[in-house]
Structure formats: structure tokens, C-alpha cells
Predict the 3D structure of the following.
Amino acid sequence: MTKSNSKYRFSFGPWNIHEGGDPFGPTVRQPQAFSEKLKLYKKLGFDGVQFHDDDAVPDLNKQSAAATVKQATELGKLLKDEGLAPEFVAPRLWEDPRTIDGGYTSNDPECRKYAIERSVLCVDIATALGCDLIVLWLAREGTYIRESKNARQAHEWLMLAINKMLGRNKKVRIAIEPKPNEPMDHAYVPTIGHAIGMAYASDDPSRVGGLIETAHAKLAGLDPSDEMAFALFHKKLWSVHLNDQNGLKFDEDKNFGAANLREAWNQVRVLEEAGYADTGAFIGLDVKVMRTQKQEKNTAHLSNSKRFFELLVQKVRGFDKKAEAEFVKARDYEGLERMVIEHLLGV
Ligand code: 3MF
Ligand code: MG
């Protein structure tokens, strides 16, 4: 159980401050340099920075591994000076031409080789940054048509890649971020259950866990708080990407709590109950500012989502636990529901 004075730490990724381009229209805001974005973290009340490998070292494909690691080491020092922690590094395996058909599960052995080499380099980047967590969002590991890949074989290749990363540095942990679709029709490892199955089949189950994103769980038709509880039971919830999602459509990355307040409350309840704040793991956000937002207010989604989370923490801590237990004991779930809704409405 999280203590009443437990403090949460918050993180976001530089991609969460963006220019508003979407598949149907161009960017609508000016780009901000990474160094400018870094200055905003503390101001907005965030202590952790989420990275893709090329957020940390933009030119990594064009330079030697040694130069890449050197650049990451320097960035690690800069972060320390700013009082910021690198939360995780994620290999970006969905933009390079060699990842068109997926990375680890590409049908082309040369492309699979590239994906593994890049992932091993990602482990080195994380180590140089002073960070022990790798996040694997398996973007293009899946299919547009079932017949294009051998799914059983694809899971062997995924396992091979995970084991290579585990072998590169015995301290590194890997958190799989499941998502059921987009950009693929069907992605491999679509839920946290799949991710944890992969963890137990790996060379070191204690170093493979998960990151749960609200929207991704909802796209899989699942309840995000139950997904989190499942990972917490396995002691494998190593980060979260809180946001929200309005039904089954494209990945919206809306503000936390903005589409379904009760689901958000339940996610906070589950995190509180499990003592998540005391594990040292971050509350990560993965939220997109609306395209309509003007340049000077382009970080409102971050401070707002953090505020909604903190207000819900207060709501969870202020809930009458004794009355709750009595309703449960009496099997009066109608009474319990009324208490929850009135509490959320501030009645
Ligand atoms: C996609 C995502 C990604 C991942 C990120 C880190 C761009 O739906 O959620 O955000 O979170 O790549 O793994
Ligand atoms: Mg995410």
C-alpha cells in the first residue's frame, strides 16, 4: 500500500512536445530544439526523461558506435547537472528503411541483423547515460496480412533479440510496451500477458517486465487498471504511459483522465494499492497536445495530465476505506458504485 506521504516521480519523452503534424496535414507549430525541451522538464514538475536511442544521439546511424557512446556519456553528465534522470531508452526500430517489414521479425536476415545491432547499441547508449531500463515498443513486429510471416518463428526471433540485449549488460532490464495494432494490422505481443509470457521464457526472467500504456490496453479492449494489476502481481510493472483513449480508433494519446475519468481513477487506485510510488518507478506520460493548440501553450497537456493524476491520488487517498469495506462485505455493489460516483463528483 502506498503511504499517504509517498511522492510520485513523473517523466515524459521529448516527442510529447511536438509540432502537430498528422497523417492528414502538416505541422502547425515551430519545432523546439532538444536542449530547449530539456529546460522545460523541471519547470513543469518532471524529473525523468524518456528517450528513444536517437533522441539521445540523433546521428547514431551516421557515426561509429564509439562516437555514439561518447555522445551519450556527455548527455548523461548534462542530465545530471540539470537534476534530471534518464528513465529509459527505447530502440526506434520503425523509421529506417531496414525496418519496413519489422525489425526483429523481418523476413530479411540482413534487416534482422540490423535490428539486433541497433538494439545492442541502444543498451550501450542507456549504460552510457546512466540508465538501466530499456523499453521495447514492438512497433512493426507484426503483420498486415497473416500469411506474410510465420508467427511462431517470429516469436523465436523476438526472444533472440531480447536475450541479446540481456546478454549485453547484466544490469539492464527490459520493459516491453505492448500495443495490439497501429502501425500494424496485428502486432505480436499485444497485451501485458503476452509480454510477461515472453519475460518468463527469456534467459533472465527477473530482468524482463513491462510498461503499460493506458491507450494501448484500451485498444486491445482491456481495462488498463486490470492490466496494471496483473503486471504488479508479477512485480513487473516498471513504468507506465498514462494517457487516455476514446474508444477503438487510432492511438489518440489524450490527456490522462480526459476520456474516462473513472478508468483513470481505477488506474491510480491500483498503483496506490500496490505501493508503486515507493518502488522508485516513474509515472510516465505519453500524451499528445491537440493540433489546435498555439505554440506558447504547447505543454499544457503535460502539466494538465500530471495535475489530473495528482488530483486523483488525493481522491484515492481521501476515499472512505471503511465504508468501502462494509459495502463489499454486504455485497452491496450498488451502494459502492454510488459512493464512488459521488466521491468523484465531489458530493
Ligand atoms: C506508440 C508509443 C510510443 C512508445 C515509445 C517508447 C511514440 O504507440 O506509445 O511512443 O511509447 O516509442 O517506447
Ligand atoms: Mg507509449
Observations:
- Residues 177, 213, 241, 286 surround magnesium ion (ligand 2) (CB under 6 Å).
- The domain at 9-319 is CATH 3.20.20.150 (TIM Barrel).
- The longest helix spans residues 109-129.
